[in-house]
Design brief:
Layout (H helix, E strand, L loop, with lengths): L3 H22 L16 H6 L1 H4 L16 H14 L6 H23 L5 H19 L29 H13 L2
Helix pairs in contact: 1-7, 4-5, 5-7
Length: about 180
């Protein structure tokens, strides 16, 4: 039986292979969909004023949002509403584990501090500076990415209108870990 880290490494390699295969077979000069999937322009989405107006409680999970499955479910409902996702209850149940995994991942990214107190102080200062600049609408390109906050994006529950191949694999892995 393969160890958990070996399975995770293989899952990552598989996802990278899939992405490279799609990238290599896609006509990048074209705006036609790749493999029948609609093209999604992340830059346009995140720079769209409508996205900027999404409430933070639908984008940034907090400790309180992750205390229980009920709290995560409430966050998932707010996220669906904020992103105009029209999901029936059965579909939300099917995607819930993916969303919970993404929410925990985003929260960990945003709250993790290095064990060294001096480095932790630098992290806190840089993150506060980034938050201030973002709130003023100023650029943060000069900061390294680990100081930037992560948010729950439009595909935090696996993609639209169907789950992507990598999300399907992740869901299968999550269900194997926690049936």
């Amino acid at each position: 039986m393969a160890s958990r880290s070996a399975r995770e490494a293989e899952r990552l390699r598989s996802g990278i292979r899939d992405a490279l295969e799609i990238w290599q077979t896609h006509d990048h000069a074209s705006t036609k969909p790749c493999n029948g999937a609609p093209i999604f322009d992340y830059i346009a989405y995140f720079n769209n004023p409508e996205y900027q107006r999404l409430p933070d409680d639908a984008k940034m999970p907090t400790d309180k949002n992750l205390e229980s499955d009920e709290a995560v479910w409430a966050l998932y409902e707010r996220w669906c509403k904020a992103h105009n996702k029209d999901r029936d209850h059965a579909e939300m149940n099917r995607r819930f584990k993916l969303f919970r995994y993404q929410a925990k991942d985003v929260h960990h990214w945003n709250t993790h501090l290095p064990p060294d107190p001096e480095k932790a102080t630098v992290y806190i200062q840089k993150r506060q500076e980034v938050k201030l600049l973002i709130s003023k609408g100023q650029g943060v390109a000069e900061f390294e990415e680990w100081y930037l906050p992560m948010e729950l994006g439009p595909f935090a529950d696996g993609g639209d209108p169907v789950l992507s191949a990598s999300s399907e694999r992740l869901l299968k892995d999550l269900e194997e870990r926690d049936p």
